[in-house]
Fold:
Amino acid sequence: MRTKRRFISWSLMLLVISAASLALGAPAANAGGGCHSDAVAAAGIRVTLSELCFGPTVLYANPGETVTWTNEDSTAHTVTGLGFRWGSGGDLAQGDTVSYLFAQPGIYPYSCIIHPGMVGAVVVGDAGSPSAALGLAAPAPVRQNPPAAPIAQPAPAASVRTVASGFWRAVALISLSLLVGVAVTVALRWQRDRRGSYAVS
Structure:
């Protein structure tokens, strides 16, 4: 009975350590949540991704203008158009940009699929007209020209997060391995004790 209590105690402790390690090791980007500030509307061609918000939330642009999104957060984000018809096509790390040319009038909603509630829209042309439907046609991606010479910059926060995440995943795996080891040991011991009790009787 005492062995079972020890097994249960150790199992629970290792399970809590494993769960905590995995939770702490997950990148902040996967933590969910989104913008908690008020929506802002503005005219222009630039949207910043900062503090889990698209700024401005609603951007008014003219047909034929190119809109550029820049991630200023240390957390990765996406710019994902309605129905996945357009967008960044993957995570934008800190400092990354993506640009789209909006040729047709319309309303183009988008979101960060990593952070629910982080949403925005580009309103192109006269949104009040009956012809301005939701995203009539997907905007065209604009290729960014690489800089002439690479500029030395400090390592992005994402690389630090990856190292920390790898450390905590290793701790979680070790904890789970110990849990399995304890379970196997207790099971073998219990089986040996059972055999011994049958031999005595």
Notes: The mean pLDDT is 73. The two ends are 20 Å apart (CA to CA).
